[in-house]
Every structure is written in structure tokens, then in C-alpha cells.
Amino acid sequence: MSKRKKLLLSSIMCSLILGVSAAPVSAETIETFNLDEMVVESSRNHKTPLPGGFNNDSSRVGLLGETEVIKAPFTVQSITEDTVSKMAMPNQDLDTVLSNVPAIRTGTSPIKTDFSIRGIATNASAYLVNNIPGFFIMATGPITNTVGSIDAMIGPAATLNGSTQSFQAGGISGATPGAIYLNTKRAGENDLIKYTQTFGGHGDYGEYIDVSQRFGKDRNVGVRIYGQYDDGGLAISGAGQRKKNLFANISYEGETTKSNLFGGYYDQKLMGTERRFALHSSATKFPDAPDASKSFDDPDLMHQDTNGYIVTLNHQKKLDEHVNWFVNAGMNQSVVRRFIYNSEFMLDENGNVMGSGAYPWSDHIYIQNQYLQTGLKGDFMTGMAKHNVAVSVDRSHRKYYKTGKNRKDLGTTGNIYTGLIFKPGLLGADESDKLKKNLNHEETDVTLNIMDKIELGKLTLVGAVARRHGDYVGKTSQIKDDNWAPTYGVSYAPTDKFSVYAAQAVARNRGSFVDPDGGNALNANEYLDAQKLKNTEFGIKAKPNENLSMSLAYFDMTQPNTLKTYSTTDPTKYWLSNNGKNRFKGVDFSVDAKLADKWNTFGGFEWLDAKQEVTTDKRFEGLPTHGSVKWSGVWGLEYKPDEDTSFTSRLSYTGTGKFVHSQTARVLDIPSHVTLDLFASHKTRINGVPVKFIAACYNVANDSHWIAQTGQPNKFMLNNPRSFMLSAEFEF
Q1: Which of 194, 216, 262, 269 is deepest in the core (most CB within 10 A)?
Q2: How far apart are the C-alpha atoms of 29 and 11, rounded to whole Å?
């Protein structure tokens, strides 16, 4: 994007912000449970939306519970259930709505869940379902039609929940700077029976049920059951999906007790969805992106099948006026059988497939997770200071089985523009259904969490510490670690419409042993301490009137990585340490506004300066981190001619990505791109039956472009082509 275009975009954003009317907008005051009340949010009480209605004015912040966005000393964003239902239609993935968060960049293969937060790579392991972590990995993600609202914690707040398994970001890459809370759909005040049909423009049909009922003398027992059956083609030529699931959410709300039980089973299949690429060391420029509607594997043979179950329990008992006891527990099982390419397609600058990685791979993954957290939460006074304290202990346990079988004799060749060449033996090469369980690792993490939020007039102080004990048993090693992870935050709000804040946290991952590497590692078999991600943030939040809400944050993160320090006497020998360093500095801005009576907007931008500061190969020092993008932003505009109708456009901009070749240290530009998505919804009645229509078009211009893969050396993705979706929801 040229400087002139950037200035034009900035001018438009500023004009929208400055043009917001100061006239008050009526809003219903709806109760939420704050820190000094119960942890489990009531299913019959909804959050109050910010101006425009796309985000909420309160968000879950770990064990701090429901907290007003303007008073939280961290970057938090709570996406409303209405936004989720409109932008992440039930047969789409959640990245279609997570891209509304300026600090998050999405874009990956449909068989992966990768995304990034402030330039640091993560994946679906950053999701928590009803406060339960650890259910998902890179290859398995959440079930979209079960999700109500989404709370995104960005930056230092990511350490405030409890145990985080080392699988979240890999054993040697430090902890992730964020946590995404998925709040499942629960029974509301009104009983309902809904039947929904969806249709995608390439032959994808879906059917959904959603039943919500309340029982009991005071209607304090809520039951919500929802299920999905979806089958058909994706916008990618020849690719398809089949999804089946059935879930139930049962909630109870008494005078002193609140409980929520969620659980269900899912089964889904993806075919022909390969979009991953790498660049050969000979390339001096980036090849042009091919037609995004093409499939780059055989849709009849290549697949990923996933099935499993999820169960969560949230329970809280009020012991007296100031003390609550709570339990968060959950378990899940995932089975993945897939026949995909072993790695990324290796391309030269002319789009020729170089063979490396383009051979098929039968894979079997089997995962079991259990999680239990219990503790006390209460409030008390010391002088004029009100303390809101939470103390908990949690235990997270995972068994991870993985078996794979490569067929290097069946490598795919050809060209991404003129066509791929598959070998005939591919037809009978899939052995994924025959592979047995093979234990890869088992991990148990136990964490003591202590936190205190102190309210002293206009000042709010947050202090938290987590003491983590980890026990990781791999195929050839066992790693035990004990470490502390502190978090500090302060917020000053001279009025209820303005606040300034600062926060810092140190997030830790597990330690590691040094592999002998054939005798080259001089500190072989030594234990390296757990890596730590240091995260600092300063910010301003303002809500000058009921039509406008804004936040601006500056962040500075230091991410460690492994470093080889070579011997001066023998250049083949080295010491291994965690003293390598990447540095991420930047600015996040977000805005929610009601521009006029029928016009709403949301959006923001991120400026990121991501550098490799200390590396083994000195050629990389000072270069950008892998896949980093300096400028990115999102802007949404909604027109609501009446209460039953809305038209929304979303413009996403991703600036020039920096591709750093892992062998040559050559830096190449991945061209910037702009994507337009359109959404429409309308409520009406057909023969007296209430019907809600939702239409969506993703990538309206059908643009084909590369997507930089943040934090992943030598990798990039091809985007998805234009896709149409239409749904009709009937309520009985």
C-alpha cells in the first residue's frame, strides 16, 4: 500500500471517529457478575454491548472474572454473541470473527488452527472452553456452532488463568501472549426451538437444531441442546467438508449456588484443503500467488478426519457474604486420522514444485486431556482499600499419542500455475486407519494461583503470581520444572469514562534438556530453565460518551529462543542456551462507535516492529522475525435501516509481510493485501413463523494472495477464495 493510500485510510478512520455524535444512546442496563461476586457468569444475564453492538463493555479476565473493559489494566476485547453468529456462521471457522481483533492476525490452511497475537505465533491451544484450557492443538480446533461470545485477553493478562501446558507454544518457543475464552451458548430467559438451514455457494448444505428451555419453580434450571449436520463442497475446487455434532448445556442458578455443565460429541472430515508452501533457497523473488480457488492436493484421497468429545463443569458455592468456593473441571478426547502432505510444498520463484515435503503422510493422533481447578474467592477491606482475592490450585494432564508413516516414493511434482502431477500409487497409499496408538508424551502440570485486585478510590491495582510445577515425560526424556510467573497491573480512572494503565507479566513454558547431538553439544544432558516471555504494556482507554469507545496500547515483548554458542577451539562444538532473543514492540488501537442513528462502526490497527536481536547465525540479527507484518488493520461499517435488518462490511488490511529465508537470510517481501467481507441479516415472519436470514460473502473481490506465516520459518499460505454463505433460521 502506498503512503498516499495509507494517509487516505488514516484520514477516513479519523473522520469517522471525530464525526461521532455526542448525543446519548439509550441502552438497557444489564447486570453482570463482577470480581466480588461469583466466578460463573449467569446464563440469564448478558453483557452490555459497547457502542455499535459488536463488542461488549466487560470481559472475562482469567480468575479476575468479569471486569469492565475500561477498568482492566490489560488489552481485552469481548466479541458479542450476535457478532459471532453473523460473521462466524456455524459452518465456518472462528478465525472469520477473530480477525475483528486488531492484535490478532489469522489465515491458515483449513486443516490447521494457526494464528498470531502481536506477532507471536500460536494456535488453537490458546483457546479455553468455559475457562478450561488444553482441549485443542494445531490440528484440532473448536466447534463453531457451540460458541456464544468470545473474550480475547491480549498481552500480560494471558498469565491469569492457571496451568498452561507446554504444548501451547512448543517446548522451546516460550509462552503465548494471549488467551481466547470461548463461552458456550446457554439457555436464555425465553424458551425457544430453532431449526436452521445453511447453504454455501459451492454445494455445501447444513442443518442445525437449537432448543432452549427453562424448568423449575423459579425457572432456575436451563437446558440448551444444539447440533449440526453439514456436508458439501468448499470454495476451493474439489475440496469439501462433513461435520456432525450434538452438544448440551445445562445450567442451574440458585440463591447460593451456580453450576454449568456442557458436553457433547463431534465428528468432522475435511478433504482437499492443502494450502501450505515453502520457498526454495534459490529463489530471489516471491512467485505470484496462483488462483486461490485451486486445490493443491487430491480431494478424493487427501483428508483429515477428527472425532471426539468435550465435557466442562463450572460450579460455585457462596459460603458467606464475602467468600465463594468454585470448581472448574473438564475433559476431552480427540482422535485425528489424516492423509496429508508431510510438509509444505517447496517452490522455486517460478512456482515449480521442488519435491521436498510434497509426499504423502498417513498420520494418527490420539489425545486425552483432564483438567481440575478449585479455589476460594472473596473480598475484604483494609482501611479504605477493597481487596478482591482469588486463590486456586489446578491440575492439567495430557496424554498425546502420535504415529505417522511417510511415502517419499510418491512425491508430487508439477507447477502451481499449470497443474500438479500425482503419482498413480497415491490411490492406495492411505494407511491412516490402520495406524495404532503410539505414546509421544505425557504431561502433568500443577499450579498454585494467587491474585488480588485492590480498589482504592480511582486506583485499581492487580497483583498475581502462579507457581507452576511441570512433569513432562517424552519418548526419551523426562523433564521436571518449577517456576514462578508474576503479573502486575495498575489502572487509574479519574472518571468512569477514562483510564490510563500499565501492566507487566512473565509467562513461562517448560524447561528442556540439551540433546547430545552426536557429541557436538558441550553441555549435553544439562537442564535448561523454562523460557520466559516478558510482556510490558501501557495504555489509555476512553469512553467519552455513549456513542464512542476507544483504546490505545503500547507493548514491548521479549521472546527467548535457543542459541548455539560455538567453541573457539573447535567450531563443530557448541553450548546450547535459551539466550537467543526476539523483540516485539508496537501499538494497538481499537474503536467502537455509533456514528449516527442507523450507522455503527468498529475497527482498529496494529503497528508492529518485530526484530531478531540475538541469534546463533549473526546474519539474522537485526532482521525482521519470520512472517512479521508492520501494518495491519480492520474496519467494519454497519447500516441498520431498522431493528430487524443490518448490512455490514468489513475491510481487512495486511501490510507487506517479511519473509526471511531460514538458509540464506535473504529477506523477501510478501505483497500486502486488502480483503472485503460483506454480511447481511434480516428478521421477518413466514406464515407466522419468525425467520432470520443471514447472508455472508467472504473475500468479495475473489483476490488471490499469499499470507505470511508469523513465527514459522520459511512458511507461507495461500488464502481462501471468495465464498458465499446463506442461512435461514426458523424459530418455533
Answers
A1: 262
A2: 34
Q: Hey, how many other C-beta atoms are within 10 angstroms of the C-beta on 540?
A: 14
Q: Which residue has the cell 516471555?
A: 533
The strand pairing partners of 184, in sequence order, are 147
Cα 428 off chain centre by: 36
Lowest mean pLDDT among 87-91, 661-665, 669-673: 87-91
Only one residue has cell 436470514, namely 693
Cβ partners under 8 Å of residue 439, min gap 6: 399, 400, 401, 475
Instruction: For residue range 233-276, list pLDDT tens digits in order.
Output: 999 998 999 999 999 999 999 999 999 999 999 999 999 988 99
Distance from C-alpha of 421 to C-alpha of 413, rounded to nearest angstrom? 5
> Which residues does 405 contact at the CB level (< 8 Å), separation at least 6?
361, 362, 363, 431, 435
* Mean of pLDDT values over 410-426: 92
Sign of CA dihedral 231, 232, 234, 238: positive
Measured from the Cβ of residue 486, the count of other Cβ atoms closer than 10 Å reads 14
- State the pLDDT at residue 186: 96
Is the confidence at residue 111, as pLDDT, over 90? Answer: no
In single-letter form, the type of residue at position 477 comes to: S
Q: Which residues lie closer than 8 Å to 658 by C-beta, 6 or more apart?
A: 623, 624, 625, 626, 627, 628, 629, 667, 668, 669, 670, 708
Q: Of 69, 18, 60, 9, which Cα lies nearest the Cα of 38?
A: 60
Question: What's the rounded Cα separation, in Å, for the pair 510 and 393?
Answer: 18
The owner of cell 472473596 is 378
The Cα 286–Cα 357 span in angstroms is 19
Q: Which of 709, 603, 555 is nearest to 122 (CA)?
A: 709
Alpha-carbon span 722 to 702, nearest angstrom: 5
pTM of the complete model: 0.91
**Kind plus residue range of the DSSP H or E element containing 713:** none
Q: Is 575 exposed, middle or buried (0-12, 13-18, 19+ CB in 10 A)?
A: middle
**Averaged pLDDT of the chain:** 89
Per-residue pLDDT of 588-597, as tens digits, reads 999 999 999 9
Point out which residues pair with 630 in neighbouring strands. none
Residue 355 has pLDDT above 80, yes or no: no
User: Tens digits of per-residue pLDDT, 438-495?
Assistant: 999 899 999 999 999 999 999 999 999 999 888 888 887 788 888 888 999 999 999 9
| Cell digits of residue 197 | 438451514
Average pLDDT in the 404-433 region?
93
Question: Grid cell 424448568 — which residue?
Answer: 215
